[in-house]
Structure formats: structure tokens, C-alpha cells
Amino acid sequence: MKKKSFLKVFLKTVISLILVVVIVALSYVAYLFIDYDRIEDNQKLEVIDNTSALVPVNKELKTVSYNIGFCAYTQDFSFFMDGGESSWAKSEDSVNTVIQDINSLVISEDADFTLMQEVDEDSTRSYHVDQKQFLIDNATDKDAVSATNFDSSFLFYPFLEPHGKSVSGILTLSKYDINSAVRRSLMVEDSIMKFFDLDRCYCVSRLKTENSKELVLYNTHLSAYTSDGTIATKQLEFLLQDMKAEYDKGNYVVCGGDFNKDLLQNSGEIFGVSGEEYTWAQAFPLDMLEGTSLSLIAPFDENNPVATCRNTDEPYKEQGQFNVTLDGFIVSDNVKVSKADVINTKFMYSDHNPVFMTFSLEG
User: Fold this and answer.
1) Burial profile 274-306: b = 16 or more Cβ within 10 angstroms, e = fewer
2) Same domain for 31 and 51?
3) 59 and 360 in contact (C-beta within 8 Å)?
4) Helices (H), 116-206
5) Using CA atoms, how far apart are residues 258 and 169, in angstroms rounded to an integer?
6) Contact residues for 196 (Cβ-Cβ < 8 A; gap 6+)
7) How far apart are alpha carbons 37 and 42 in whole angstroms?
8) Is residue 148 located within the same domain as residue 186?
């Protein structure tokens, strides 16, 4: 009798625990769907106004684009969504050190326009360090605009180190007066991947030029974590249509950011490790530029080829790791580009290297 009684209690306990786990899991799934919300399109953005200078024409200008990887990707960092280990930065001290180093690099480049992506404001993964505010506070001579492109519910995965809640975005700094700015929402997948790819967008900043036109400056970060890469292509098509419309109005158009497409078409061959298995490393569809009066500017030096992004399934290695050029620029035909290249940090501060372009607006 005692054995039967013990077995009965044991089975009841196991069943109760299973029920609790099922209820918790269903409650969490319900929370994700109830809490899921996207930011409205055409949202007007606040401009932090520190300058009134007009953008010069027929003068060399410089723009830098840098995906700072929420200040987590030191050389020893690997990311769980790429097959690596970590979902958080190494420590709060590490995040603070990296953001300071990135800020020093940005200042040293002395660009007219700086476009940054994956800039955290209040995220579990970066110990709630406000990277956006730090960068703005250290750019008191520049106009600044930020747009949120990642505002997630609490992601309880990986279970031992939950990625948590993330509020992150893109940040634009300018030596010249940003007259106005808007946030344009991009489409994302409808599958479960939408919980890892929330609120993709691009920021459109409008700047007056000395010849009474406008420089329309785009900062973008297209999707990476998709099932087959088609969403990023649709996002790109939407972006290019917008840019072409601005050029057709007679404006100058410059876009920079992380396109999550292989801008060199064959990065695997150039840098020595194939990337065929990665959906986010598909070749940039150059045919989409036909008839748009827009050109892709891929930062590259044939004599010293450097990639803009490393795969983070493992820590950084100088040899034997998939590298690809995802970061670059798109410009309209009235923008004359003199140079575009990669700033080789050897991925000290991010899984991306910053890139730069020098150009002039044709009068």
C-alpha cells in the first residue's frame, strides 16, 4: 500500500509540474503576442539642434557609417543567434569601455556625417547602458537624430542567459543643420522571427544646401535574421523607391548603413571563406538600381581588401572565419564620390568595421 501511495503522490507531483511548465510557457507566448507592437510609419523625429550651417556644394565632404553592435562584440565575443555562445555583453564595464573607444574613433575620423546602427538605449544585453545618450553628449557641435528600430518584449532565450528586453536604434550626427527628420517603417517577417527583428526602419534627415536644394540623408539597418533573405530585399526595394523619388525632385541623396547584403557580390571568394550557408549574406541585387539614377558604393581597396563584418559563430580569428562586406553607401547621380574604404579596426569594438566615403554635391 505504501508503494502504491508513494507512486500516486509521485505521479501527481510530476503531472502538476508538467502542467505548471505548460501554463507558464503558454502564458509567455500569450505575453509575446499581446505585447507585440510596431512603431507607426512616418514618425516625426526630434532633432537635437547644435548647428545652423548649410551643406556646401562642390566641396569634399565625408560620411562614416558604423554598426557598433550594441558595444558587445569585443574580439572574444560570439553571438547566440549566429551559433555562438553569448547573448549579453561580457560586463557593464566592458560596454562602457567599448562605447568610449567607439566615441574616440568617431571623433578622430572628424566626419561631416556619422551614421551609426545598433546603438542601445535601454537593453538587458548591454546592461542598460545608454549608448545613444553618451554619443550625443559627446557631439555637442553636431545636430543629432535617433530612431528606434528594435523595441522588443522580454525574450526568455537562451534560458541560462535570457536576451531580455532591448531598446535600440540608429543615430545620425551632422556638422550641418538637419532641418527635419522622419522615421520610415520597413516590413518584417510574419513568422516567429518577427520577435527577433522588431521595428526595422530607416531614418530620413533633410538638410538645406547652399544652392537652395536639399541633401536627403538616409541611415538604415536592414534585416538579417530572416528565413530566406527575401524580406531584406523587399526592404531594399522600398528604400530605393523612396530615394529615387527624392532625386526626381532635384535633391541630393546619400544613404549609408548596414544593408545585410554582400555588397561585393563575392565576399567569400575575396576573403577566403565561403558564406553560401548564410541567408543574410546574399549578393546585393544590383539590377534593382537600373533606371533609378542611384549607384551602390561598396567600400573596397583592391590592394588592401578589408571586410566590414565578421561572422560571430565564434570569437574573432584573422584566418579561417567568414568575412563579408555588408556596410556601404548608395548615392544619387548628382553626388560625386572620390573614395570609399573600410577603417580597419580588426573588429576590436564591434562585429563590424566602420566604413567611410568622401564625396561632393555637384553644383
Assistant:
1) ebeebbbbbebeeebbeebebebbbbbeeeeeb
2) no
3) yes
4) 131-137
5) 12
6) 81, 152, 155, 225
7) 16
8) yes
Q: Is the pTM of this model over 0.85?
A: yes
Contact (Cβ atoms closer than 8 angstroms) between residue 148 and residue 51: no
Please state, in angstroms and rounded to a whole number, the distance separating the CA atoms of residues 325 and 298: 8
Handedness of CA 192, 196, 199, 204 (dihedral sign): negative
Cell of 200: 526595422
Could you list the residue range(s) of the whole structural domain that residue 24 is in? 1-35
Indicate whether 158 and 241 sit together in one domain.
yes
Q: What element of type H or E holds 230?
A: helix 230-248
Closest C-alpha among 87, 204, 225, 108 to residue 147? 204
Clarify whether residues 210 and 146 are in a common domain: yes
R_g of the chain computed on alpha carbons: 22
**pLDDT string in tens for the chain (363-residue length):** 455 677 777 777 888 888 887 887 777 667 566 666 678 899 999 999 999 999 999 999 999 999 999 999 999 999 998 889 999 999 999 999 999 999 999 999 999 999 999 999 999 999 999 999 999 999 999 999 999 998 888 878 888 888 889 999 999 999 999 999 999 999 987 656 555 556 789 999 999 999 999 999 999 999 887 666 688 889 999 999 999 999 999 999 999 999 999 999 999 999 999 887 777 789 999 999 999 999 999 999 999 999 999 999 999 999 999 999 999 999 999 999 999 999 999 999 999 999 999 999 998
Pair 263, 284: CB distance under 8 Å: yes
Q: Which residues contact 56 (CB under 8 A, 6 or more apart)?
A: 209, 210, 361
Number of domain units in the chain = 2
| Sign of the torsion formed by the C-alpha atoms of 226, 129, 323 and 336 | positive
Q: 183 and 276: one domain?
A: yes
Residues 113 and 63: their CA atoms lie apart, in Å, by 5
Q: Determine the Cα–Cα distance for residues 216 and 317; give it in Å rounded to an integer.
A: 38
